[in-house]
Amino acid sequence: VINFDPTVFASASTITLTSGQITVSDSVVINGTGMSQLTISGNKASRAFNITSASVIDVTLNKMTITDCFSPGAGDGGAIFVAGLLMFAGHRALTPTKDPRLGESLGFENS
Q1: Tens of pLDDT along 45-91?
Q2: CA 55 – CA 78 distance, rounded (Å)
Q3: How many CA atoms lie less than 13 Å away from 75 in the CB half-sphere?
Q4: Contact between residue 42 and residue 70 where contact means Cβ atoms under 8 Å apart
Q5: Cα–Cα distance between 109 and 4 in angstroms, integer?
Q6: Which of 46, 48, 65, 94 could in theory staple to 20 by disulfide, Cβ–Cβ 3.0 to 4.6 A?
Q7: Could you give the CA distance from residue 65 to residue 79 in angstroms, rounded to a whole number?
Q8: Could you tell me if 70 and 107 are in contact, meaning their C-beta atoms sit under 8 angstroms apart?
């Protein structure tokens, strides 16, 4: 479990990715501090998360906004790419990008 410290992220904060996407290959829970408090930005250069594993994993992203992401190829997911199965439970909102150069919000590949 990764918990962002609410004292550090008490006011609206953005983490801008400068070295590319965050690759997730093991089960993890990432708890932000609130959709209006914590934003993960792809810096219009990469997607935020690449969730891929040879086996079944559980990944939970809570209380954060993901924005300004870029898809390296058509259908590859602008914000989150999932190679495998995806299930949404209790999600609040998923807003597709409006800029066609930035790709779709989610991309899926079932292997």
Answers
A1: 888 888 887 787 888 888 888 888 887 666 566 788 877 666 555 55
A2: 23
A3: 4
A4: yes
A5: 29
A6: 46
A7: 10
A8: no
**What's the whole-model pTM score?**
0.77
* Of 88, 66, 72, residue with least CA distance to 17: 66
> Six-digit token pair at 96?
């597709």
State phi, psi for 57 to the nearest 5 degrees. Answer: -130, 155
CA distances to 13, 17, 28, 67, 107 from 86, rounded to whole Å, are 27, 23, 14, 19, 10
Answer yes or no: are the C-beta atoms of 81 and 48 closer than 8 Å: no
Separation of alpha carbons 27 and 11, rounded Å: 28
CA angle 44, 31, 5 (to 5 degrees): 95
Distances (CA, A) of 62 to 8, 99, 100, 104, 110: 17, 25, 26, 20, 24
